[in-house]
Each structure stands twice: as C-alpha cells, then as structure tokens.
Protein 1
Amino acid sequence: MTKVSMDDIVSLCKRRGFIFQSSEIYGGINGFWDFGPMGVALKNNIKKFWWQSMVQFRDDVAGVDTSIIAHPTTWQASGHIDCFSDPMIDCKTCKGRFRADHLETSTCLNKPSQSPKTCGGELTEARAFNLMFKTFVGANQDSSSEAYLRPETCQSIFTQFKNVVTTSRHKVPFGIAQIGKSFRNEITPRNFIFRSREFEQMEMEFFVKPDPAIQEEWYQYWCQTRYQWYSALGIRADHLHKREHAKDELAHYAKGCTDVEYDFPFGCSELEGIANRGNYDLTQHMTFSKKDMNYFLQETGEKFVPAVIETSAGCDRTLLTVLCDAYHVDEVEGESRVVMRFAPHIAPISVAILPLSKKLAEPAQKLEKSLRTKFATDYDDSGSIGKRYRRQDEVGTPFCITYDFDSETDGHVTVRHRDTTQQERVSLDNIKSYLEERIEYKAI
Ligand code: ATP
C-alpha cells in the first residue's frame, strides 16, 4: 500500500495542473489557492456528483444558489457576530500569531523545528478572534455599510426557507441544498487546501417535524447516507471514519453531531459534519426578522417551526481526500509510476485518445471529437506511447485508446486500463457504449 505524504500531493498538484498557489508570481497569499485545468475538472465532477446524489436523484431535496453577501442581521441572528471566533495567541518573540488550541502542532517562526509551546518565546494570553471577513457595501465606508463575506452557506437556506416552501411543492420532511463559496479568516491556514480562507461548501438543511423521535430517525439516516456517499466517490472504507461528538462538544441547541473523518497524511481530520440542530436557526431568524417561519402541515392542521438535520461538507477537503486516496506508486515493466486511481466518474479526463503515429492524426482526431460530447477527453500525440501513458496515469485517466494502423482496416482500437495496465481490442462501433458502461455512475 502506498504511503502518501503531503509533499507528494502538493508536488503532483503543481506538476500536473491540479492546484497552484494563488498569486504565485507575487509570492502567493496565505490561505488562498487556484485550481488549474485538472483541478477544476476534478472539483466540478465532485460537485456534480454531490448535486446528483443530494438533489437530482432525490424527490425530497430542492436546490438554491444564494448570494455570498447577505443582510448583516443574518449574522447577528445566527450568532456569528458574537461567537464565530477562534482563540488566538501572539508570540512577542517571533511575532507569530497562532490558534491557542493548535499550539502544539504549529511552528515557531524563529525555530521551525519547534512549536510555540516549546520554543521558549513569550506568549500573550488567548483572545477571541472573529473569523468573518468584513467589507463595505456601497460608496460609504462606515458602520452602516458594513457587511460580511459568508462564513458558511447554510444561513441563507434558513432565511429563504419560506420562499422555497411557497414556490415549490415540497412538503416537510424535505431539504434545501446549496454549493457555494465560504470565507473564513483562519488564523493559521494550513495543510494545503484542508484549511484555507476561501473554500467551497456543499450543504443541505433537511426540515422535519420537531419531534425527538422523528429528528433522531432522520439524523441517523443522514449520518449513514453521507458516510456511504464517500464510498461511492471511491474513497477506501478503511480510511473513513464516523465520529460522534461527546455531549460537551455540542452547541447548546444541538441534539447530536457526527463527523465523517478521513485519515489524511497529517492525521485523521473532519471532512463533513452531520448535525441534529433542532429548530434553533429558524427560530432565531424569526425573532430577528419578525417574519413567521412556521410551517403549516395541511394533513393534520399542525403549525410548527421545523427542526433541522444539517449535512455540511467541504468541497476542497473532499477534493484533498480524493487526491490523497487516489495516489498510488507501483511498478510497470520495471519502472516506478505514479498513478491516480480516481473513480472513473470523477476523473478529470475520462478517456485519452493516443494515435500510434502522427500519420493517424485524422482518424484519431475524428474519434476524439465523436467522444467529447459524451466524455471528458484528451488528445495526445507527443512522445512515445509509454510516456503518454505515464502522463495520463498521473492525472488519473481511467482509459487510454490507442489508434493504430490496424484500426484503419479492422475497425478496432486498443483500450488500455489505467489500474491494471491491461489492454484489449474494442470495436469502434461499440466504443461509446463500452466506455459509458465503465465510466458513468449508476445511481445509488
Ligand atoms: P474545523 O473544526 O476543521 O475548523 P468546522 O467544524 O469549523 O471545521 P464547519 O463549520 O462544520 O467546520 O464546516 C463544515 C465543513 O466545511 C467542514 O467539515 C469542512 O469540510 C469545511 N470547512 C470548514 N472550514 C474550512 C476551511 N477553513 N477550509 C476548508 N474547508 C473548510
């Protein structure tokens, strides 16, 4: 089994165009990342798969796409203005700034082999640091125009709850889902894209009748469903864990919370949180907005503020998980190769067309064009066929098609499988359905 390090991942991401440091030519900006051609394709496939699983393939979840900047009262009602902070400590000696609860795993700026806890530097007391990015809306820059970049995508799902209820035919129990950017001014962004200051979330709020038994039933359902989703994404089960929060870790209004965690090279860490949040959020927005958030259940005539089960996943963390999990080094014909074993339905390139000779460019390009409307394709005619295979292995292309001189007469091409490197001849007449069967995800 390949043991992967973060250096391996960061270097592959740079080498193969998955992820670059943001503003690299200016020295970079800490906590921000840019996705290159392979990275954006992989990320889009992950988001598409989440959307299909959570919205498209279900009858009981509706999607929204809300603005990044919301009315500032949103964040008063949600508690973010008062409470969304991390404890921060300054070191007067090295001038570093650290999260008090991450001191042991942080690095002293003067003595990089030591942590701020052991380096002997003079530390301040911990103080609360609010993680929300502040900005101004409009031409005036005073307190009346202050606004925030959202630190999570779910609050506007709550504030739009009534609009979705009245404009869709969904009835409780049902969910509202959204994918979008969130921003947190993390004190110490680190571990590549695991903790950054700008990231994407994939969140869903599932509204149910506020009854402890019903809430518990849906909470268990979503814990199970979300855990299974990562397996369907191709993540190895022995690297995935579910961790139920202890009572003293829960927010005062929450009845339960479970994290899905993954064994990253830097340790086991959170990928997603599933929470049984009660009806705290809708009640808060009802109080602050003075708008009725009650739901009327026609069948029974009951009126209530629904309780919520939240599933909150990070797209960038999922992408990092996919990268770490797919990274393998093995040996092919006596040579070592790096191969990214992405599940075929999320690989950035599904199929690469490689003509054996440049003389075959015309029919090979024709084949590539006939496949590109259905699959993410690549066409590569530079270098030896072995080198081209290695390039495709490193970006995780599950199938390479070699068009050779025999293809002209027998109407067959060679399909090479990424993981086994085995090859087989497939008729050009069947190639689309052959690929479809092996690439497309079969709905759960
Ligand atoms: P952590 O304890 O790691 O800071 P959290 O418990 O604050 O995370 P939530 O507020 O529950 O995280 O956010 C839901 C999900 O959003 C997380 O599970 C994670 O996948 C993602 N996420 C949160 N903060 C970041 C970040 N700074 N960078 C990348 N992804 C993040």
Note: The pocket of adenosine-5'-triphosphate is lined by residues 152, 184, 186, 195-196, 199, 201, 270-273, 312-314, 316-317 (CB under 6 Å).
Protein 2
Amino acid sequence: MRFIDEYRDAGLGKKLVARIEQLSTRPARLMEFCGGHTVAIMRNGIRQLLPPAVEMLSGPGCPVCVTANADIDKAIALARLPNAIITTFGDMMKVPGSYSSLQQARGEGGDIRVVYSTQDALEIARDNPQKSVVFIGIGFETTAPTIAASVLQAEQEKIENFYVLCLLKLCPPIMKTLLDLGELKLDGIVCPGHVSVIIGSQPYEFIPRDYDIACVVSGFEPLDILLAVAMLVEQVEKGKPRVEIAYRRGVNPEGNKRALELMSTVFEADKADWRGIGVVPASGLKLRDKYARFDAGQAFTVTLEPVREAKGCICGDILRGVKTPADCKLFRKVCLPEHPVGPCMVSSEGACAAYYQYGADYG
Ligand code: SF4
C-alpha cells in the first residue's frame, strides 16, 4: 500500500476483524502503550469492533501526561525568573502543576512561547541574546534526537543563552517497571510506533522472554492497529509470544542508527519522575557532562513549593493501566477539556481527552 487512505479501507478492516474473531478462542488482555494509539483506537471505534474476549487497556505513553507535577512546577518556576523566555510545545501550556500552569504563568507576565520545533527555540535564542531561552524538553525516544541535534547546533553556533529542561523519558525501562509492579495481567502489548522508528523492535525482546507477553509494533492507522491486534491474538492463541512488527513501513528491528547515535552523543540514561509511578532509575535522559552547560536544571536555581496532586484525579492509575477515565468521578463532570483537572484531559494524546472526545459510551 502506498497511500494513507489505503490504511483506512473499511473492506480490509472488516476482513481483519473477521480474522481476529476467527483466531480468538480465549481471553486476551492487550495494552496499547502509546497515547497516539489510544487516540487512534478511540477515534476509530476499534474496541467496539473487537470480540469481547479481546480487552484493550491504555498505558503510560503520553509524554505530557507522565510528566510529574514536580517537573511541571520546575518549568513554571523557570518562567518566573527575570530575563527568561520559556519555549514549549503547545500541549504543555494548560497542564496543571501543583499550583499553576504555564498558561497561568504567562497570564501573570511570564514570557512563555509555544514552538513547533527545537529549531524555533534556537531561533528565539539567536534573536534574544540578552535573555536566557529555555526549551521544555518533554517526550520519549521520538523527540530526543531532535533535542540532541539542537544542543549540538547551539554548541556549534556558540549560542550561549540556550538551555534545555531535560524531562525526556525512555519506553522500555518503564514497560519493565510496569510489568514488575505486577498490577497488570497482560497477554500482549501494542508497542509504540514512533518510538520504535528510533529504537527499533529489538529493545522489546525482554518482554516475551522474561514475562511471556506478546509484542507487536504498530502504526497509527486503523488497519495498522487491527493488524497488530490480529498478530497479538495469534501469538496468544499459539502460546508463543515474541516481538513482531506490523509497521514495516516505519520500523526495522535495529532502529534508526543515526538518531540513536545523536541521542547517545548528547544524553545518557538517568532517573526520571513518572506521574503515578514515581522516580524510576535509568528511565529518562540527562545531558552528558560535556553538554551540562545547556542543562536548565543546573544553570538556574529555583525555589519550589511542596508538590501537590489534584484531589480526585486518578491520572496516575490510568497511566499504569489499572483504571480508565470512566472510573474517575470528575470525568465529564468537573474535569473537561476547557477546565482540565489533570494532564490526561489536556494532552492531545491523553486517555481522558480521547475518552471525552470519542467515547460517548464512557462516563
Ligand atoms: Fe484526572 Fe480529569 Fe482524567 Fe479524572 S478525568 S483522571 S481528573 S484528567
């Protein structure tokens, strides 16, 4: 197939659903790790198409949602420093921290600018040499190479006023942490598509080997996801879990060598604070010593109030896959996209936002 419409073909979709029905003889609990998959599944009504024996749970793969309040508070505190310009992707603006959000901080006079790429942030740094320009670096392995490239470019151009608040996170370590928590009894995982373009499918090999859980890397179109589910159900039925790729047009087992090199040139693994999970060793990235001068966390001292969580918000449980947005008492009542209580209602990849927008059956 060459065109995107072909991955949305209803006739082929029906055939894949029939294939899943034919294969499915026993319960299969599957988790889509990635928030982009959650949105695609909800938007296309994929859960409703699957046989009752195939259950789908959402995981922690929304970078905005998993960013801990402590880190959001830090970004807001940086925005209050005199002479600072904060640059961020738009999704972060409305995310509530303990006491405020970047949007509120902007209303109070903070110079906070939404950018579409790290190149935009570098441009702002070039144009404002008298200011400290901080890029809020959230994301997974998908985003890390472009942030790494921006740091290298800043070094090459001797841009002295560019900094990164490095909140990057890594998928395989948090998958292992979730499985080790033992809260989920999974049979299969729909592995993230965009992350796997960078890291390949090999980093998931430990999952079938150590946990007996099937893994299939999926793309984001409805047929990609149905194909991945069919492959997972087939593995579950055969009792032979392994790692497969249903997203061959984007992913190979080894990943993108150039992007991986860029990442490891600039970053090294470090602990990261995950909403609902806590601090997990080696599940994030920090700037290597050679590039530490770009690290906003080291360059600026900020005073932080004690961290608070929004009362009644169960984002943490949703991100661990143990609850769904429909379990939240605030969903659709107090918590709405216009007045989000937690990040899962803010982010375009958030489970609560996806359930709100596409899941009329829920809540
Ligand atoms: Fe948090 Fe709102 Fe989702 Fe409830 S509906 S878990 S309050 S984001």
Note: The chain has a mean pLDDT of 94.
Protein 3
Amino acid sequence: MVKAWIVTGALALCCMAAPIVKAQQKAVDAEGHQWWQHAVFYEIYPRSFADSNNDGVGDLNGIASKLDYLKDLGVDAIWITPCFPSPQVDFGYDVSDYEAIDPMYGTMKDFDHLVSEAKKRNIRVILDFVVNHTSDKHKWFEDSKSSKTAEHRDWYIWRDGKGPGQPPNNWLSTFGLSAWKLDPKTNLYYYHYFYPEQPDLNWRNPAVEKAMLDVTRFWYKRGVAGFRLDAVDTLFEDTKLTDNPVLPGTDKFGRPNMDERYNKKLPEVHDVMRKLRGAAEEYGSVLIGETWTSNVSELKDYYGAKNDELQLPMDLMMTEFKGLSADRYRKHIGAVDAAGAWPTYVITNHDIVRSYTRYADGAHNDDIAKMMAALYLTLRGTAVMYYGEEIGMENNDPKNKDEVQDPIGKLGWPLEKGRDGERTPMQWNDGANAGFSKTKPWLPVPASAKTHNVASEQKDNNSVLSFYRQLLALRHKEPAHRDEAILVVLNMSATEQKVQLDLSPLSFSSPKLSVLLTDFHKPLAGLTDALPMEPYSVFIAKIAK
Ligand code: GLC
C-alpha cells in the first residue's frame, strides 16, 4: 500500500508495515489487518450524549437511540467512558462496582440491549477500565480501611506517616494537594494519585491482579469488544517510597513542580499490560491505552517487545502541540511511521480542551476543523474521535467558580478551570437544551449550539458534519491497496498555497488523478497547474499509475 501525503507542499510518504496477526483474530483484508486497524472509534461521555429519561444526565438508552446516527456517520466502535456504579466524584472514574451499571445510566438489560443493537449495525462496544484505583466506596476499600488485618487490607497502599501530620513522602496527587490521606481508623495513610476518593489499588498483590483480570472477562463474556485502559502510567509506585525530585516553578495548583519518576511509568506497568492482553486474547478483544508519552519511542514500548501488550496505545502527543505547524505535524507523523507500529491517532478527548477551540483562529474555524479531521482520519492507523467533534462543538468553560462541577476546577480556579467545558451536552438540534434533554442538562449548552448541531448540519452540504461523513465514507471505501495511492494535501496556513504536484518520488511519474474530496469554497478549475490550496483547505485524490 502506498499513501501519499502532502502537508503544505512538502511530501511525506507513508508505507504500510505488516502487522502481527494473532490466531484468534480474523484478518479483514488481504494485507492481514484486523477490524480495529481500519476502525474509527468514537468516544462517548455517557452523562452528555443523549438523555432518554429527561433527568438532565445522559444514559445508555439515549446512546442506543443514536446508533443510526453513528452508523450513518461512519463509526465502527463506540468507547463509553465509565458507566458503572460510582459516587461520581470524578464523574464515573471512581468505580464502586466494576460488574454493574450505574442506575443513573440504566440497567444491565439496557446495556445488553445497547450491545445487541450496536451489533446489528456492525458497531462494537468498548468499555473504559479504571485499572489504577477504585472509588473509596468500593466494598474492597471499605473492607481495606476497616482494620489492619482485613481481608482486603493489602489491596490498597497503606503506609505510616513520617511523623505527626507528615505524609510518608513528597508525592503529589495530580488533582491537587498530597497523594496521601490519613485514615483515622487505623492511623495510617493511603495513597491516591487522583482524588482522595480514588484510592490506588496495590497491583503488587496477586489477588488484586486476579480480581481485575476477571472483571475484564466478565464484560468480554457479555459481548464487549475491548477496553480503553484508564491511567495506565500510574499503576505502580516505588516500594521504598523515594521522594520525587523537585523541579523549578509551580503547577496550576501553586505546588512545586515534580519529576514524578518514582510514582509513574514504572517498568512493572508492562507486566500488567501483558497480562491484560493475555485475557483479551482469550476473547479476541482489543486494548486501547490512555498512554500519555513524550515521544514516539516511549509510546512504542506500550505495544510490548513482542507485540504482546496494547494493540492500540493512543498517540496523545498531537493534542499537546501548540498552534498549527505543518512542519511539526510532518515530523511527528514521519517519526510515528518510521517506528513501524500501528498508530492510533487522537486529537481531543474528555480531559482536554476541545480541538475545535484549541485550533480556532476566529476567521476559519470550520475550515480548520475539517482540515484537522482530514489530517488524522486519513493517516495510516486507527482513529479515535470524541463526541461532538464531528459537528464542530466548542468548549463551554464555566464563567465563574460557582458554576464549576469538576472538583479540580474548584480547587485550581482560575488557572485550572476543570474539564466541564469539554464535556457539555451533545448538540442534536437548535432547540431547547440542544435537543439533548427536556430538562436543564447537568452542564450548560453554549450559544454556538444554534449553528453547530446535528439537525442543522445534516441539511448543509458544507457543514463540518457533512465533511466528516464524506471523509469517513471515503476512509471505508478507499483502502489504497497495492498500485494505488491516495493523495492528501492539507494547507495548514491562513494563506493560499500553490502546490506543484510532483509525484515522481513516489514512482507515479505520470499519475492519473481523480478528485475524491475537497472543501474548497471556489470550484477547482482543473488539475493541470499548481493546485491552488485555499487557507486551511483539504484536497484528497486517488492516484492510479
Ligand atoms: C484518566 C481519565 C480522567 C480521570 C482520570 C482518573 O485520565 O481520562 O478523566 O479523571 O483518569 O481516573
């Protein structure tokens, strides 16, 4: 397979590496790819997608009612962020029972219904597995804190303080304050990398490992096609509790910056990834990782030395690029391709400012959204979208502290506003509450819902939504097999660029081009001269020898 890529005029060639095919997983094409390699995953934040019982919070039946929309959009799998029983301190990422559905979202019957309805449409369901911690209301933790000799005592990380009022070491919670909380019952501290209501599990305890692997099997048996693994970096801590080195400067909470070398990314993480993969292989399932890495080589480690860890560790690096620089993207994509593993691209999710808002320049916002879609949805690799991205949803940050729901926003205001802004209700139409619910939703809908919503955009051929649908249709229709290439030209700048299509380096010396998709505002006169790329535009064509 050859896929040609041009970003503002300079060529970058992508070649396909043969993936490892496990016995249990059937190839879906002649090149040995599996379903998840061609798939587009779509992340759903269940609180905010569709509210079927009009209580202001989304639910599973709401999701089921939108499956036709997702099918029509071109989605192959949905990843639902945690929908398990939870006190909702971290909106579901504090799980109090891994093998049930929170009544707020529905019942197990609703879940089974969702899976079977999705299956009819050839859409797989992926769940979110919170591996690092449970809720403090989980029965394991309730027992663990009850006494020093409790059955589950060693399922969490309990340590003596350094002295009166002093935690065991200087580790900090990523959500503010210390990572240790003193529990008066036994007068020992427990460790929590996230909120105090999210105590870290002790993955060095084989009983924890067994219980957690069994959770995955419970869901695989119910028809779940895989998991997105939450916060894998933080599974292990140095057993000697060595203090982290303090760095210059302060963070958003005003605390000293730290080099978290003793409580993050410990090598033992990979043993757990291998074991989770082992369980996934029993059911032919796929594992997606929340893998925050600073470079491609670190990301590569998550596939496993023998391709025996995660099939799809997310490349989250592009979400941290500031501004639009063709050169920066070109280099990154080149490095990912050179690494030879199967990439998983993401530009936004429920923890970061929406891509539409991050890239907007005020003058070409929709064009930029389309251009970024064309960037990551045409690359060789798997793509993970975030709900609302396809209609150009923007962040709707709280305007003052009283409105904030996400606890980190309350603690860190105003430097840290929390993550409410990127989690607002899906915009289905231009009516009340954007058609999400008949009741006031748990988070407010922005004014832009009047223009950026599914119903309006479905009627407009030039909308962001229409562009996404065409792009995803193309992605499914045009595999770019041997002796074919798909040319993707993107203008990442605010000025028109003339692009000379010299494809000789790709051994296409007299190429026949047929245009597949553009978002030009002016009609394209012809392809004989240099290609006039409008600001932030997209040109996709098929090349035949
Ligand atoms: C992950 C989730 C985030 C959550 C955290 C703790 O980073 O994406 O939303 O708050 O883990 O579970």
Note: Confidence is low (pLDDT under 50) at residues 8-24.
Protein 4
Amino acid sequence: MSPDPAGPRRLLVTGGAGFIGSCFVRDVLARRDGTEITVLDKLTYAGNEANLAPVREDPDQAAQLRFVRGDIADAAIVGPLVGEADAVVNFAAESHVDRSILDPEAFLRTGVLGVHVLLEACRREAERAAAGDRSAPPRYLQVSTDEVYGTVAEGRRSVEDDPIGPRSPYAAAKAAGELLVGAYVVTHGLDAVVTRGANTYGPYQHPEKLIPLFITNAIEDRDLPLYGDGLQVRDWLYVSDHAAAVDHVLRHGAAGETYNAPGVAELPNRTVVAGLLERLGKPWSLVRSVPDRPGHDRRYAMDGTKLADLGWSPTVPFEAGLDRTVAWYRANEAWWRAARSGDWHDYYERQYGDRLARSEAAGPTAAER
Ligand code: NAD
Ligand code: TYD
C-alpha cells in the first residue's frame, strides 16, 4: 500500500481519455485534494481528449493534469512516466468484444505486451526504491473485467477465487493481463492490485456498446440490432461507481489481491432496451433480432462481498443512471456524431450490414415474453 495515508499523490492514468478512465480522471481531480494526474493515451478510435474537457475548463483542475499521447507498449515513453508516478492505474485496452472477434491483434498488443511494458517499468522503479533512489515503490492497479470469468450459470455469482474461463478474444487478452500482474506480484514482489468491473454505462461511452449504440440509433430512428433472443443477462454499473471502485481499491486494496466491482441491476438485454426506448419515446418496432455474436456469453454476475468488506459498494440505481445517460446523449449530439467518424461506417457495415439484412422483428419485450 502507498505509504501516504491520503493515498498516492502522483498518478499515471493510462487509457485516461477513454470512457471509464476519463470519468476516473474527472472525478479524482474534482476532489481538489492535490492529486496530480498524467494521462497516457494512444487516442485510438475509442479515446477522445474531449472527454477531459471538463477538467481543462477549470483552471485549478487543469493545472493538475498533463496529457501525453502514446502507447503503453512503448517502453521509451512509459519508463520515465512511471519513474515520476506514485501509482499507475491502467485502463488502457481495446475494449469491444465484437471488434475482438473481427480484429483480435490490437487486443493482444495492448492487453498483453502493453501490460508487460507497464509492469517492467514498475519493477525497475521498485528496484530503485529498494536501492534508496526513490522513496517508495509504485503501486500498480490493473482495471479488468467480469468477462474473465466467462459465462456464469443461473443462480451463481462469481467470486474472486473462481477459476477464470475467458471465452472471447477480448476477455482472453484481459485474463492474460491479469495473469501477468499476478506473476509480477509473486516473482518480483510488485505492489499490484486488480479490479474486475461489471458492464459499465454512462456519459462519454463510445457509441459501439449496447446502451450508447441503441440510444444514438434510436434518436436517428435507425434499426437496433439485438443479438439472438436478447435474453442474455448483464449486471449494470454506472460509470462513476466503477471509477470510485477503482479509486477505492487503489487506496485501500491489499497488495496482490483482486476485487470484484459488481453492478446494481442484473437484467436481460431486452429489458434494458425497453427502458431506453421508453425514455426516448421511440417504438419497440425499431428493434431487430439479428444473428447472434459467436461465443456470446449468456450471463455475467459477480459477488461483491470482498469489496463491500473493504468499504465500497455501488450507489447509483439503474433507473437513475439510465435517465442521466439518455439525457446526456440527447444533449451531446456533437460528441457522439464525432465518435461516429473515422472508421465507424466501415466497422458498422462489417458488424451489422449482413446481420441487419438477415434480421427479423424482435417480437415482444422481455417483460411481455
Ligand atoms: P474505452 O475503449 O472507452 O477506453 C480505452 C482507452 O484506452 C481509450 O482512450 C484508448 O485510446 C486507450 N488505449 C487503447 N490502447 C492503448 C494503448 N496501447 N496505449 C495507450 N492507450 C490506449 O474503454 P473503457 O470502456 O473505458 O474501458 C476501460 C477499461 O475498463 C478497459 O481496460 C476495460 O477492459 C475495462 N472494463 C470496461 C468495462 C465496460 O463495460 N466498459 C467493464 C469492465 C472493465
Ligand atoms: P456490449 O455493450 O458489447 O458489452 P459486453 O459484450 O462486453 O457485455 O454488449 C452488452 C450486451 O448487449 C451483450 O449481451 C451483447 C448485446 N448487444 C446486442 O444485442 N447488440 C449489439 O449491437 C451490441 C453492441 C450488444
């Protein structure tokens, strides 16, 4: 654990221009407690410096933030930045399961080699601390996911000691990253912790994931491509709750431990989609049943006792979180239209063109079935 009771002061936040990472940066700097943050982000299609605009617009917070564009797999960039940090919080990843099915390589480059580079830099800094060249070794936090457990049978909830069983290239890359962290804890005595967050939603999420994709498509009266029977279950966590869980584990987690950060609402996709349409005043007829995602995990569900015992639990009810999220996308059309530029149209066509051509009406909502 950090020797400073207030927690680490100088943070290197990798992937801090993405959805959850930028929320973490905004929320930590809004505390105005003297924490300094360097964001290292490659700005892939999913990263966006505009996600840090609320910090830039506040001179006091802006003074605490430095942004560096770069790749976590680039040791020459990573080394000096880790050298200046009390802790490294790694959000950087390719994060979309469907893209990992189409193009898995970038997932491995960032999720395996990138994590390796970060861990090596931390190991060198720990050696410097042991030699008296810095005051304390850095703490490393790996942001991981419930998807490493694989699909979870009805009635069960994953606990941290369960065997992992990733089933998508995305989840396999995340599991590999976690295993590397564990190896550095055992082999090199690294001060590292892992969080496994549930499906997260909220403002600033790239409109490729279920909730923002369906909100933005529905605003435009476009088809909503629901995979298979739409009865797959996810446990939803509001983004500021996820960021707070990461912060809590960073400050209080025991070295070498992994913590589940579950959501508050275990729901079939159909129910989530019905809730979005109701808020948007759009008809269920927009929903199209399309051929399923290969290897689609049926259900994720985690037990949160370990992190609750450490003093954290989620606070934002799903209904309130969904209200805020829908309102945000309605009010920030320029943001999501910009995110749908670059390769977006090619991706959409590859992912959904054929599926929508083979789609059918989605039938009744989950509640009506
Ligand atoms: P995101 O795709 O919105 O953000 C990822 C960020 O990482 C982007 O800013 C991107 O530019 C950056 N990045 C990617 N590769 C990089 C590299 N090689 N070097 C530097 N930066 C790089 O993802 P997110 O939804 O914010 O997820 C953040 C983390 O949380 C990920 O590790 C993800 O696996 C994990 N997670 C996400 C969810 C979820 O539901 N979104 C749930 C549990 C865990
Ligand atoms: P997603 O947001 O991709 O998160 P994850 O796959 O990491 O859980 O998907 C959430 C759920 O929504 C998942 O069961 C897949 C489903 N889904 C669709 O039915 N259609 C879509 O177009 C997308 C993107 C997801």
Note: The chain has a mean pLDDT of 97.
